[in-house]
Specification:
This protein is of the alpha+beta class. The protein has helices at residues 2-28, 125-141, 156-166, and strands spanning 57-64, 74-81, 89-93, 101-105, 118-124, 189-191, 197-202, 206-211, 215-220, 223-228, 233-236, 240-243, 262-263.
Length: 267
């Protein structure tokens, strides 16, 4: 009887540790009881205005999900603008409407129902123009165009991770709290979204990732814990990336970027 009791205690403590981050985020949240209709959806002013930048642009964004989902995860999306275009096209997946995948004109950097966006990738010029062609093909081939499941997927982060894997120009490390990014469409092994490593995943419930760009992540019931040696950081469920370097800036600038302590995706 003692050994089962010890196992139960250790399991309970481990689960409490995994849920400590989401619990802290929940305690600090101010969205409880608020309607999505009243939430801020204004532009953060991150993306250049189309009239001020004629070049092709591709950007990837993430923001805390609305209400209780934001205690655990972020919502991610992709914005594209062709050369000379007068507006951006925003590509994402949502759980409402008859079709999960949406590609429509809009502002690329709006708050996600009260939560400010964070820029994860920014391509310009010829590289962006080439990426847009690949992005269109990837969206057309996405295997879950009419499916959405908040946990463990397929969801908005499954969609963005899928597109990133198909587009070599997108060297993007999605946050560890992008729950759904580890939901693989075919089999249990795949390249990491950034393409700089590999991962194993059992339908997004359990898995392991090892990548130069993402570091090492252990997925337990969709909650990812890990380390990012290049960014001198740890990754915790709910809290996200906590480290000395921003993992989403261009790596070629790391030698000249001031080292500052930050919590990159605990918005």
């Amino acid at each position: 009887m003692i050994k089962p009791l010890r196992w139960l205690i250790r399991t309970t403590v481990f689960l409490l540790v995994l849920l400590a981050g989401p619990a802290l985020i929940a305690a600090c949240s101010s969205q409880a009881g608020q309607s999505w209709r009243d939430m801020d959806r204004s532009s953060a002013g991150i993306a250049p205005l189309p009239g001020h930048a004629t070049e092709a642009i591709v950007q990837v964004y993430g923001a805390r999900a609305f209400n209780w989902r934001g205690h655990f995860a972020v919502h991610t999306w992709i914005a594209t603008k062709e050369r000379g275009a007068s507006s951006y096209v925003v590509h994402d997946v949502t759980g409402w409407g008859y079709q999960a995948v949406r590609s429509r004109p809009g502002e690329p950097d709006t708050a996600w129902y009260g939560n400010p966006p964070m820029l994860l990738a920014d391509l310009r010029g010829e590289k962006a123009a080439a990426a847009i062609i690949s992005i269109r093909s990837a969206i057309a081939a996405y295997p879950y165009p009419n499916e959405y499941t908040a946990w463990p997927g397929p969801n908005s982060n499954t969609f963005v991770a899928w597109v990133i894997r198909q587009v070599p120009e997108l060297d993007v490390a999605l946050p560890n709290i992008a729950i759904g990014k580890d939901y693989l469409s075919d089999g249990v092994f795949a390249k990491a979204p950034s393409g700089s490593g590999y991962q194993f995943s059992l339908n997004g419930y359990f898995g392991l990732m090892a990548s130069i760009r993402e570091g090492v992540e252990l997925n337990i019931l969709g909650l990812n814990i890990g380390i990012d040696p290049l960014a001198l950081a740890v990754k915790l469920p709910g809290l996200g990336h906590i480290g000395l370097r921003d993992p989403w800036i261009d790596r070629s600038t790391w030698s000249t970027t001031p080292v500052t302590k930050q919590v990159s995706d605990a918005n």
